[in-house]
Design brief:
The protein has about 375 residues and is an alpha/beta fold. The chain has 3 domains: about 10-110, Rossmann fold (3-Layer(aba) Sandwich), CATH 3.40.50.2300; about 145-215, Signal transduction histidine kinase, dimerisation/phosphotransfer (DHp) domain (Helix Hairpins), CATH 1.10.287; about 225-385, 2-Layer Sandwich (Heat Shock Protein 90). It has helices at about 20-30, 40-50, 65-75, 90-100, 115-180, 185-215, 230-240, 240-245, 265-280, 330-335, 340-350, 375-385, and strands at about 10-15, 35-40, 55-60, 80-85, 105-110, 225, 250, 255, 260-265, 290-295, 300-305, 355-360, 365-375. The strands form 3 sheets. Strands 7, 8, 10, 11, 12 and 13 form a 6-stranded mixed beta sheet that branches. The relative contact order is 0.07.
């Protein structure tokens, strides 16, 4: 980005006609512009090396270096300067060519002095616009760098957390299995609380790691024949302790499909199910019910995770799949969560050529719907890969 010029109202007029230089300087100076003159293209280049300008008015036809060559030089070395071409009536085509090369405007001789000053003021607007665009580009680059640093930090911290969490989980499981007196009483309950919370921490860390990989483009599906019904039953079964702890009923997986086999990445789809079920558990009160259904839909299957929870207002139906977005801060503070679970679901589903949407209204529960194509070819066609 070029340095801001000290006086954006400084103008260079380049012409080999003394009368044009005189009247142009007089008219522009009367409007508060600082005007410098050059009688040849070569002299104009020397002026450009000595000082900076907000705009240039250059004659197109001059001995030696002409206006087009001056324009090319300015575009290469001083791209923020607004260059205007002054041309005779017989050289309009040359002025038009200069416009294609990057000139801001042109004016034909003999010209109206009011038109000349109007062009100069337009150049001030161009300059301000250019400076704002460059500022925004710089800001965007800075934000991108910060976002990259954030992603690397999150990824590194998540990796560092994973090892001690894994060790703690193994030690707790060994403790529960090896100490007889933990089979009953308060000690066992305390150990169960620790195990459950450790599992929750592992889930959060896994989500953060997966989200980091998604942002880097390294979290890609590995397609295999996958039984979606069996995955749904496994995910629901794995979360049974959490269902019991929250006093929520897990309805049996319901399927009306002839075959639940699809081409997909089973580990990623298990992550989708865990995230959707975990989200439903967070927002379903004690005594509520959560279930999973599978139904046919054209060349694929719709997987639906439904609940009898608090529901979601229509204005949030799209936003909930944005990263870090959480609808109700009071609930999420109570139940926990990183705000990336549904963003991960959306990314995984789209990588499989599917789509995800919600049907819900406040107080009437939610239905998180996921459409997945049966074959990898259908998935590739949907994603354009």
């Amino acid at each position: 980005m070029e340095a801001d010029i000290s006086n954006p109202k400084r103008i260079l007029v380049v012409d080999d006609d003394e009368s044009i230089l005189a009247v142009s300087t007089r008219a522009l100076s009367a409007e508060g512009f600082e005007v410098l003159q050059a009688r040849t293209g070569e002299e104009a280049l020397q002026r450009l090396e000595q000082t900076d300008f907000g705009a240039i008015f250059t004659d197109l036809t001059m001995p030696g270096m002409d206006g087009k060559e001056v324009l090319k030089y300015v575009r290469q070395k001083h791209s923020s300067i607004c260059v205007n071409i002054v041309t005779g009536a017989g050289s309009i085509e040359g002025a038009v060519e200069c416009m294609r090369l990057g000139a801001c405007d042109y004016i034909a001789k003999p010209f109206d002095l009011n038109e000349l000053t109007a062009m100069a003021f337009r150049c001030l607007g161009h300059r301000a616009h250019y400076r704002e665009v460059e500022r925004l580009k710089k800001d965007i680059t800075a934000y991108e760098d910060l976002d990259k640093l954030k992603s690397e930090f999150v990824s590194n911290v998540s990796h560092e957390l994973r090892t001690p969490l894994f060790s703690m989980g193994g030690a707790l499981e060994l403790l529960v299995q090896s100490v007889p007196e933990l089979n009953a009483g308060t000690s066992k309950k305390l150990c169960e609380v620790m195990v459950n919370n450790l599992s929750r921490l592992n889930s959060i860390v896994a989500n953060i790691l997966n989200f980091s990989r998604i942002e880097k483009g390294t979290f890609l599906p590995s397609f295999h024949e996958t039984d979606l019904g069996a995955l749904a039953q496994k995910a629901s079964g794995d979360l049974q302790p959490l269902f019991a702890q929250r006093g929520i009923t897990a309805a049996p997986v319901s399927s009306s499909v002839k075959s639940a086999l699809i081409e997909a990445d089973p580990e990623q789809l298990e992550q989708v199910l865990i995230n959707l079920l975990g989200n439903a558990i967070k927002f379903t009160p004690r005594g509520g019910t959560i279930g999973v259904t599978l139904t046919e839909s054209g060349n694929g299957i719709i997987l639906c995770v439904w609940d009898t929870g608090c529901g979601i207002a229509p204005e949030y139906h799209l936003k909930i799949f944005d990263r870090f977005y959480q609808v109700d801060g009071s609930i999420t503070r109570e139940t926990g969560g990183s705000g990336i679970g549904l963003a991960i679901v959306k990314s995984i589903v789209e990588m499989h050529g599917g789509r995800v949407w919600v049907e819900s209204s406040p107080g009437k529960g939610s239905r998180m719907n996921v459409f997945l194509p049966r074959s990898r070819e259908k998935a590739a066609a949907s994603t354009g890969k």
